[in-house]
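Weekly structure sync - notes
Attendees: PM, LS, DV (DV joined late)
Agenda: review two folding runs queued last week.

Item 1: First target. Sequence and structure tokens pasted below for the record.
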Amino acid sequence: MVKFLVALLILLNGMNQWHVIIASSSSCSAGLSQKDGLVAKLLLERERDQNINYIKNRLDYFEGAGREFLETLTTAIFGRIDELSYKIDELLSRVEQLGDCCNGSSPADNCSMGCADVIFLVDGSGSIGATDFAEEINFVADLIDSLPSDVHSGVIVFSSNVEDMYSLTNNPSLATIRSLNYPGGGTSIGNAITVAIDEFTMNGRSGCVDHLIVLTDGISGDDVTLPSTDARTSGIITYSIGIGGRVDQAELLLIAGHHSRLFNASISSLRLLHNDITNGICNSSHTNLTIPPFQVRLVGGTTEYEGRVEVRYHGIWGTVCDDYWDLNDASVVCRELGYEGAESALTGAYFGQGSGAIWLDNLFCTGTEDSIANCSSSGFGIHSCGHYEDAGVVCIPPPAPVRLQNGTFPYEGRVEVLYNDTWGTVCDDYWDFNDAEVVCRELDFPGVVHVFGGAYYGEGSGPILLDDVQCNGSEASLLNCSSNGFFVHNCGHYEDAGVRCQQPIRLVNGSEHGGIVEIFYRGTWGSICYNSWDMADADVVCRELGYAGARKAFAYRSGYSPPIKDYINCNGSESSIMECPYTRYTGYCSYYAEVSCIPPVRLTNGSTPYEGRLEVMYSGEWGTVCDNGFDLIDANVVCKELGYTSAERIATPGAFGFGSGPILLEDVDCNKFHTSILECPSSNNSCSHMNDVGIHCSAPFRLASGSNYYSGIVEIYYGGWGHVCSNGWDVIDGDVLCRELGFPGLQSAYGYSYRRGTGRPILNYVSCTGNESSILDCYAQHNPSYCSYSAEVICQPSIRLVNGDMPNQGRLEVSYNGEWGTVCANEWDLIDADVVCKTLGYPGVEDTFMSGEFGTGNRTILIDGVDCSGNETSLLDCPSEGYYRYNCLHDQTVGVQCSEFELASGPILLDGVDCSGNETFFFDCPSNGYNNNNCSHDQDVEIKCQGRVRLVGGNDTYSGEVEVFYQGYWSDICSYSWDYRDADVVCRELGYSGAMAAYVYRSYYSYTALSNVYCTGNESSLLDCPARYNSYCSSKAGVTCIPPLRLSGGNEKREGRLEIQYAGIWGTVCANEWDLIDADVVCKELGYPGVEDTFMSDEFGTGNGPILIDGVECSGNETSFFDCPSNEYNTNNCSHDQDVGIKCFERIRLVNGASFYSGKVEVYYNGAWESICTNGWDMMDADVVCRELGFHGAMRTLTNDFYEGYTYSLFTSVGCSGHEESLFDCSKSYFEYCYYKAGVTCIPPIRLAGGNTANEGRVEIKYDGEWGTVCNNGWDVTDAVAVCKELGQPGAEKAVTSGDFGPGSGPIFLDEVDCSENETSFFNCPSNGYYNNTCSHSQDVGVICSPKVRLVNGPNNYTGDVEVFYDGSWGSVCSYGWDLTDANVVCRELGFDGAKEASNIYRGYRRYALSYPYCNGTELSILDCNHQYNVYCSYQATLSCNVIRLVNGSSPGEGRLE
């Protein structure tokens, strides 16, 4: 009943708003009849009578105030019904009067204009002049006279000043139509159009098209967007005629809706438009167009082609909900409104919230429909939305009446304008920067670069439309500028004007050839969201900017301007990013698109990206540069252009090979102001490729704040120095970096140094495979907004002393390109040797040797002619002949002996000192007396005291709680402010190369010697650091130092080739006398429970350093491997094929679980197994544990399964990034009490192979390190369910027994498997036992599991919200990082051919199971992609999969339909 009353009220209120204006004299039939009114009245009265009885019957259920209120309300409602009934009676008489008017039986003065087919809106403002107004009216009268007799006409005069409005009364030109003046006047074009619409909607004439002709000479100053849109959605065809030069062309275009109905004329030339207007009216006035019952409009946008989508249904306007709103739906709307298509589909009430009805929800258009009324939906009025979900669109705007032709890029070309559906050129007379500025702005470019005349972009072929154009630069359109008028010129096409506008794309906040992508769109610069950003998109950007292409596409954490576009989807062939499909930015963007472009200069054939033969690109071809006149200034320009800080040196000709293309440049002469070598003066060349120049640029990486040249914080140069985040940093990443910096390899990498490098973070979550030549080739997250700590490394030094009796002496060897070699003695002297010693950390040189005194070695001679100045920080910084360029033999190999202590220079005071040992002070000892000696300084006494710092209570010799010797006692250090810099000083003081971690130990409240220690990291002793003495606290400082032994070359951290460090050099151990006892000492020193196996024949590959020790014979009681007896260092007759290898027992295990891959996590520490608190325990921590145990990863965390009361645990607040090799590499706190202990369920050693998706395949299990199959005897769906649940799938769909997934190739492990429904693990199911079967691989079983991904809330099975089965339950996927590649993986996992669309929908701020998926497209499951767990966000990832395709066609648009 209420709906009926509301609808009737709207109808009646609309019918009462009639205006008595001017009526035509022609006869017509009324659109509303008495019958219509009577029917409405009868319906109303019937509704009233039925509801009176219904409500009265229900009132008996209420008592007291409730009944009284309802009776009052009912009386009011029925009173309103009676009032409405009276209004209908009143309206019936008005309908009868209207019928008399249109039939000609009533005086015209009393008639409404409700019968009109054509209405003229005439500018009647006093500013137009009385004579000109008369001309307007004469033009209108002529038009009316020339129309067919059955076309009904009317005239409305409007003005911004009603008092200053010309009158139509008794106007002789309109006498034939008996017109009256519009008594109310009008206040603007917009209001006048609204008045006209009201009249048209009353005429009720079928078979007619309503026409509105607007004549104006000025700018209205009001918003005509909504009235003009309403006119078109009401079926009215509108013409706009601009009179004179004051009109606003953009406003006229909004009114007309299309260029073909927009005219410009002077008063005197109005009559030239007579035929165009009358033909337009007559050709469409009898085409049986009627106002449709369903209409669409856009509201709330800044232009007519964008806004909130509203539809009119049964006469009532309402909105559309954004559930599943996508570009297909938006395209249908836009084409329905007469546009070419949609640019963007917007959600979340982007254009503001509507009011009233929500007519449509869950709209699903295919994109081919003529109207959204024909699309699939929930049905009219059926929805579950609020107006905060109102859908919006941005349609492809109608083309501007100006274009640029024949240019290379869209932003340049010959200027052409559109007039009366004809394109023509503009003559260059008076053509200047102001004119070009208007053109560029009208075409939405940022500004002008150059103005051209003389047909610079070629001669046009159509008419010359404009000449003597003179803009002031502020006009909205070129057509608004002063000119001779259309077709008035004295030019030829050789004078066609042209323009080059500024590119609507730029790179900001980056390096020389890269940065955040910004585009100029609708008058402003903005960034692009990273969603779906890929190399195809980046390539288009770079080519548009003049580069050869893109080097990399990546993301920046925060934009420098508001995002404008999202989900860019280029195919790579576009000439501009503006040509690529996209989605309008919808309110959320976590990362912004960034590119690195291929510059027109490159370095080739080098061992690193920043060295090589110099090549430049010219006219699409790469060529070399001749070295004539080429100097460091030129090289600096090249290196800076490539994004490096500077040039280190110029290589000798041919050092990087000889080129094969053209030699493009010679005698290059750059200065420091040039930004590209192609800008520098040069000459034609007369060189050969023997003169090809090569350059060594400074590396874009450096090690900062280290204790020596081969260690420190990892910093990267990207438009300025920044640092690499510690998240995910590991030994593989560190090794790539060290090799890139020219070191032989890595000593140690640590990701939680508690220090931060220079500038902003550049890289995060670096993940190398180990095969990369540069850290820049590794996967990484670029430009994170913040990270706590920086990555650090200690590389293997690139110089060493070998074959000496002491660590401070030996043959000098250097490393280059992974090869160790010797140094020749030509030009060698003590200055060179002093640089070597200081590089190695000694105070200076004691002696040097030039004749192979420490052995000649059998290595390559790498360097000759070294000539250091003495100020260099490394021998490799000294000038030389270059690598592999020498003129000597091995008997000239250099040797060095460094001094351990600096040689004294003062007097020698004492000699003959003879202490007994009981003296309190040294000065109490007997001696010869002061200055009584015959010694020289080479006899100076040297003493090495026991250190004042030690480690206690650790799991090994290089870790533990720190103690200092203070005031005669050993004492703890309080952990307040304790960090990595403090730990690093401690470790170096103890003789280690540095610290691996700084720890906090929980203890009882007690005295400590030191507190609040603040080391800079450069001190030689902890007691040199500022600190507070004599404090009390309950947490003590601890460290783990970088141990002098390691396992290398293994697949896991607990196995590998044994390597030890001696005198700063890493080397191997020979297998002579080696046994399990020796290996057990090593494992325990490394923190493992013991040895699992040992190997004596290069099981883990051969080492490439020296063989340091042989004949090791440990007893098993040693606390350190270095306490074991052995031969002297470097004394052996072994080869590297005897290198020792070790495999230790795991130092992490699972206990008390339902299966061997599930349980409470325990870690081995200081000789005992300890638990972990659940504080902060998550899937990333669990994943590290499972991978460390040899499983593929974690399936779920166990946080409430192991209650042990309030008891001690070793670790708490574990914070893994997910990339660590071991749980011990993760950040954590030590020694905490808690109730619940952490556990995991790992992905079991069972897999599906040979399937098309991740959910199906041949069942394979892993046993004794080998994968094998299961035989089909007794196999059924219960067994299949056990397998699927073991794999973390929701369940099983089918048990396969016929080898559908192909035969396996390994052993057949199990047969006669007989699981029950209650099994906790497939491995607990009864069977014949391993290897006990007589099967063949043709009997291999398989399963089809229910997928771990599903679509929900969609209109069909291939569209909806994406959910994943995670940690034993279903959870949503957040749209952060969601793109088409990720959607493709999901669709293929669900059995579809791929994804049609990836989108998102607002679902409220909550926790989502999975976020930031980063798929490469080859994964079988979304869970195989890089991702994050448990992220809070507001937008749900959605998609639509492909369900149809065309195959075997010769083009994408044809083929067999499947």
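Item 2: Second target, run right after the first with the same settings.
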Amino acid sequence: MSGGSGGGSSAPGRFADYFVICGLDTETGLEPDELSALCQYIQASKTRDGASRFISSATEGENFEQTPLRRTFKSKVLARYPENVEWNPFDQDAVGMLCMPKGLAFKTQADSREPQFHSFIITREDGSRTFGFSLTFFEEVTSKQICSAMQTLYHMHNAEYDILHTPPTNDKDSCSSTGDCNGTSVSKLQRFNSYDISRDTLYVSKCICLITPMSFMKACKKVLEQLHQAVTSPQPPPLPLESYIYNILYEVPLPPAGRSLKFSGVYGPIICQRPSTSELPLFDFPVKEVFELLGVENVVQLFTCALLEFQILLYSQHYQRLMTVAETITALMFPFQWQHVYVPILPASLLHFLDAPVPYLMGLHSNGLDDRSKLELPQEANLCFVDVDNHFIELPEDLPQFPNKLEFIQEISEILMAFGIPPEGNLHCSESASKMKSLRACDLVSDKRNGNIAGSPLNSYELLKENETIARLQALVKRTGVSLEKLEVREETSSKKDLKIQCDEEEFKIYQLNIQIREVFANRFTQMFADYEVFVIQPSQDKESWFTNREQMQNFDKASFLSDQPEPYLPFLSRFLETQMFASFIDNKIMCHDEDDKDPILRVFDSRVDKIRLLNVRTPTLRTSMYQKCTTIDEAEKSIELRLAKIDHTAVHPHLLDMKIGQGKYELGFFPKLQSDVLSTGPASNKWTKRNAPAQWRRKDRQKQHTEHLRLDNDQREKYIQEARNLGSTIRQPKLSNLSPSVIAQTNWKFVEGLLKECRNKTKRMLVEKMGREAVELGHGEVNITGVEENTLIASLCDLLERIWSHGLQVKQDRSCTAFVLEDRASVYSASTQIWAFQTTRRPTLHKGKSALWSHLLHYLENRQRKTTSGSFSTSGILLDSERRKSDTSPAMSPLRISLIQDMRHIQNISEIKTDVGKARAWVRLSMEKKLLSRHLKQLLSDHELTKKLYKRYAFLRCDDEKEQFLYHLLSFNAVDYFCFTNVFTTILIPYHILIVPSKKLGGSMFTANPWICISGELGETAVLQIPRNILEMTFECQNLGKLTTVQIGHDNSGLYAKWLVEYVMVRNEITGHTYKFPCGRWLGKGMDDGSLERILVGELLTSHTEIDERQCRTPPLQQSPSMIRRFVTISPNNKPKLNTGQIQEAIGEAVNGIVKHFHKPEKERGSLTLLLCGESGLVSALEQVFQHGFKSPRLFKNVFIWDFLEKAQTYYETLEQNEMVPEENWQTRARNFCRFITAINNTPRNIGKDGKFQMLVCLGARDHLLHHWIALLADCPITAQMYEDIALIKDHTLVNSLIRVLQTLQEFNITLEASLVKGIDI
């Protein structure tokens, strides 16, 4: 990112912008850091309970009055040189806070006082960055006033400690005397942290810092260490310190891209090198350290969380570790960039920022004494928590696996082992790690067994095998058919013998490892997105209008891209394509058409993608999940090696400055007060730079930095900045300069606005995706969304709800006895600020678990139960289903109660869901499927008293207007049908309620046989369920059947009156409330209708409001009342409307078209094929019309069915074959097939009637692609002439040929029939 966002003047390409000194200002004395102190008050009050919100105090039982040596005091910026540079205005608050994030530290001679180096980043509103590098060391306090003040604080502290820790009188027996008890504890305290002015030396922290436009971490660390060494070594440095600082500020330039630079430190040369524009961007942190701290598997998991934009919290007692991990993870994302809050070091006074309900990557400093259980965070459902020091990572639920994860880990492990780093990392520099330090790639390669280390008989694999992580990793990798024992360790290819590297061996190895690991990570994205350009949707309008409307524009064809991906990649990719970083990447691509204005990162990535295309020479859409290893390592390594072997530029050496006599002296062990007159301005003509720097250094100064780091030209940048200000939702880093209550309130308001905007965009996106483009154009709800995408969108909605419910949440805060002392002070403070995240009033305890939403629901449940027992409970929470679903006037089921609590209980009863986050997500899915999400949440939030108890004043859920709008957006989901609960929880037990409605008119009550029923759905079918006689309503439980498709109903034909006229059957899922109606309107009984004892009924889902005809094209038209039309030619042909040939052809066309469409959809989008075959407008119904057209009227009182005609045709062909009068072989095969199918259906043990048999024949014919053959066969059959009139469609050759052509289109599809349709048929 850019070094500076300042005005119009250009930065002169200098290596460093500022040199800063921070520490104790002896003039103002000891100032407590109020914000940090408030945090400590709250922490301490909770420590006794063992539950600190952010981090508990140092020792168990210690009260809020920290020992003075451990307290937080304000540090100040003591000096900075130069005063200001216009291209990078100095941000005093930010620099002061980040140089010393915990303020001043005091120590005595008894404490360790090693200097500590750390780096930091300042991110501006426009996203540009400045880098800081800070070395903190300890100096003796020479001010008598400060020492006296510390002594006084200790006297006060000990007096308070005595009062609070004196045991009550009844405890006398526990020790010899009260005095002894107390004396012991105080002496214990003094032994560890005390200060006695007469015998102790007091030291205070001080820090020197460089602020630079680019992140040359290694070089800056050396500069600062050598400066510190100069003031601590007995020998004075060759020149005054001012000379070296002047040199680094004004005479050392930034190395140009692709070049290396050498300049002088106090004691030796310092080398830095910068990648060229065709290489991976500059990155100077040691990747090695991250893998040693976390291990490969944890790094890959953390990397996945970052790519999917989860909230990430890093936790360590070392600031530099926080920075190294954060910078490494974001650097490995190339070509993508983290777009959200990025604060690798979170100062103590900004802990309230963990409340942010947005994706963030933050680093939290630990005191090294607390474990994870002591750390309570506002929101944990979407949090990835990384305890860097303890090799521990806690992942969010439902984290998809990174594509080819095992092979990826294997490839990284090979590289790490070549550098002597165990793939599982080394916790606390274990013995195995120290042994591996000396491991070299060449030793490994030369040894067939993979590894004698430095001549010792220690085998590297054996060394690793002892570790359980690597054992688990190997078990995983073995499944992929690879063995870790045969690790392919890279041999060092660099020709080091020929090239003399200018930096030391260790530093060169860090460069090598960095580039090798980064190349492997970059290669994953070049492989995965090799064809991404094909799917970029270029805007049709000009850039200006596109930029204005880009939120509404679709810029990438996600559905097509995903349909091309290997199945295992989909869970990860479908979520990754929804991230902000991917959207920004594609925006960048659209904005940069020409190679010249292309963002440098994009240019590098595109050139790599082009190379891959040339290498693979594959078609753009061909996809393979085969793992492709990285092939660019050697080339990248060679570039660095060449730069380090031959230094391109040498900066001017430090020299004596024009200083007065006596200036520049210093006292040993103290960093001197520098001469500001010589450091405040650089050389007027800058002759040093002119003499050494080539012209090209000055050519692309500021603009170069901007395009390299901010990656936008100035106009676009201005637009982005303006937009960021207007929208107020892109908060990259909390404002460090002003922490007034009003600023914090404003920040929280931005979060509330951002959440509402995100909710609006998400609901809109989900509705458009669900309804599909076709629906928008044609005005109907054709499903146009893949199962994977739908799941991804719903998961992201669940994440959003968790973030909303976590914003401003009161975290568990039970007071300890000492907290009462502070209550007045803290509550006064919180009252004045109104928005502070720390209040010590008693709050309800948050339920154990990570889900804020589920916790709120449980509190609500408790409240209702309390009211029920106290008798004040009203039934307002339970509403009858009749309010929502309008049922038929005919017999109907008793309505299902609508109850928020009932839905919670359903979820609690599902044993498969173990965690609170899982329960919350299941509840959201169930509420969406029932179209009750908005209503349930409104009811939950109507308990204002509970919401006030659980949430702070600034929380989203307490902003009434925003809350109303939020619920209104969720209400829009009721416009579409989701099956997001049914389709996800496929193995749970579900109660189903059945209602059978027989005809009242025709003696249903006299029915004597024993009925049975069998229900089928997309996920399975029930066994045959015997229905007790005269019982028409029953409930049973079975594993989730999915969406219901068919019901088989029949009876055993027993008793005197075994005839049953069933109007329809209804089945309801008692959890989701989905009710299916299966129309029948036919007799079941011998000698009645077509003689059927069992029927297969095809169902339809009843919509919420039957008067609104919301039809999906894949389902048959819904019938408003049960059809009594009988599918046979009756004595009164007027019972069924006669269709003309045109209408019949249209019906056939639509039925076949429905099936073709079905197969052209991705598998997970397809609806029920049974409906398309056997539904009201299905293929069976359409062919029935064909065969009934022109059918000769039967004799009086005798029904003739299509099946009768087909049986006669079968007899005719069988006779022909016996007489051997078959015209041709092809024709003979068709006739044989036809006869075989008719015979098999007639021989089925099932009691199916003639119409049922016809349905079965059509289904089997469609499955085996024989329908068009049979139509041709029957059209030529003499039986047709006898049984059909001349006007019949089957006798018209033109129409028959047209029909055959339409049916032939089904040949290319593999039709699989539901088991219920062909049960008992063995063909």
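Discussion on item 2: Residues 741-778 form the longest helix (38 residues).
Action: LS to circulate a short write-up before next sync.
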